[in-house]
Amino acid sequence: MTMNAGPPLLEIDRLSIDAVSAGRQVRLVDEVSLNLQAGQVLGLVGESGCGKSLLSYSILRLLEPGLRIAGGNIRLEGKSLTDLSERKIRAIRGNEISMIFQEPLTALNPVFTVGDQVAEVFRTHRGMSKAEARRKAVDALAEVGVPSPEIRVTQYPADLSGGMRQRVMIAMALACRPKVLIADEPTTALDATIQAQILELMRGLQRNFGTAIIFISHDLGVVAEVADRVAVLYCGRVVEEAPVAELFQNPRHPYTRGLMRAVPQPDAEVMPAILHEIKGNVPRPGHLPGGCRFHPRCPIARDICTTSDPQRIKVGADHHVACWEATDAH
């Protein structure tokens, strides 16, 4: 896995996202800051409702009506994306930054053939003729391991298996060799064999093309296989961030430790007989507890956790955490 020094390729700087309804604002993502280097895989981990997908959609300005970027900035190679016109951001989507959505059957258009949908990327961003784009679509499907691509281009999404549809989505996302690929739970609906194939495919993209990847998952075990670095989100905030090996060897936040207890550790010789769950549920937006947002579910919470929100601090060379236990031990 590649780790490049130098300025970040993508910067998320104190980004906040609000839901606005009937004049009321509810904060969903709260001052998140993250950097992504060229050729790096950044894993975003957390339970459903923690803000992972919202964060990714905001990068491409794909937030649904009623949601808005309330503060902060997103920069690609130093250029702000939050202030771009719709025309300019459309030129970046699918070209410099691409996204693989969680469910390819809903992301792909059921009334167009697979070939037409992949070819459209080349026609939109590369100005190719219909025939040339069709040839490139066949090549793109072959690159991601779709068998008999010259036949597949004539088929519709419903004709393909889940794993094959996911490969089509990846082919579309990589058609223009984007600098950044956002993968939102790309293996969730797939069986173990197909999941392993998709993960290996993504590792190959990073190696062969230097693609920087934001890999979103609720499963730390999957992220451990592909990521260089991991950010753990809870209630719209980053509670811990570290290189993947450091995070697994020395998790400092109780939430991170809870997520890890739910999956077997990497390289473990024996899978645990019992996988533990984190008690309780993620609080609903607008109904967050005071103090540390995790304290109602935390097994080591104490008085200060219920009244004061811990700030993110550095606990290692490249390891940050927001937890009173880590603050006191540091």
Provide a brief overview of the structure.
This protein has 13 helices and 12 strands. With 330 residues, the chain is of the alpha/beta class. The chain has an 8-stranded mixed sheet, with helices on both faces. It has a 4-stranded antiparallel sheet with strand order 2-1-4-5, with helices on one face.
- How do the strands of the widest beta sheet line up side by side? 6-7-8-3-9-10-12-11
Beta-strand content: 15-25%
Per the principal axes of the C-alpha atoms, what is the gross shape? globular
Query: What would the average pLDDT be, to the nearest integer?
Result: 89
Count of helix runs? 13
Q: What's the total number of strands?
A: 12
Poorly predicted segments: none
Order of helices and strands: EEEHEEHEHHHHHEHEHEEHHHEEH
Helix share bin: 25-40%
* Alpha-carbon distance between the two ends: 30 Å
Radius of gyration: 20 Å
- The computed structural class is alpha/beta
Largest sheet: 8 strands, mixed
Write the layout of secondary structure elements.
Elements lengths: L9 E12 L2 E13 L4 E5 L6 H8 L7 E10 L2 E2 L5 H7 L4 E4 L3 H4 L6 H13 L3 H14 L5 H4 L9 H13 L5 E5 L7 H18 L2 E6 L2 H7 L2 E6 L2 E7 H6 L4 H8 L41 H5 L5 E4 L2 E3 L2 H6 L1
Parallel strand pairs: 3-8, 3-9, 6-7, 7-8
Antiparallel strand pairs: 1-2, 1-4, 4-5, 9-10, 10-12, 11-12
Helix pairs in contact: 4-5, 4-7, 5-7
Write up what this structure looks like.
By secondary structure, this protein is α/β, with parallel strands linked by helices. It is built from 13 helices and twelve strands. It has helices at residues 52-59, 86-92, 104-107, 114-126, 130-143, 149-152, 162-174, 192-209, 220-226, 244-249, 254-261, 303-307, 324-329; strands spanning 10-21, 24-36, 41-45, 67-76, 79-80, 97-100, 180-184, 212-217, 229-234, 237-243, 313-316, 319-321. The strands form two sheets. Strands 6-7-8-3-9-10-12-11 form an eight-stranded mixed beta sheet, with helices on both faces. Strands 2-1-4-5 form a four-stranded antiparallel beta sheet, covered by helices on one side. A hairpin with a 2-residue loop joins strand 4 (67-76) and strand 5. The protein is globular. The two termini are 30 Å apart. 39% of the residues are buried.
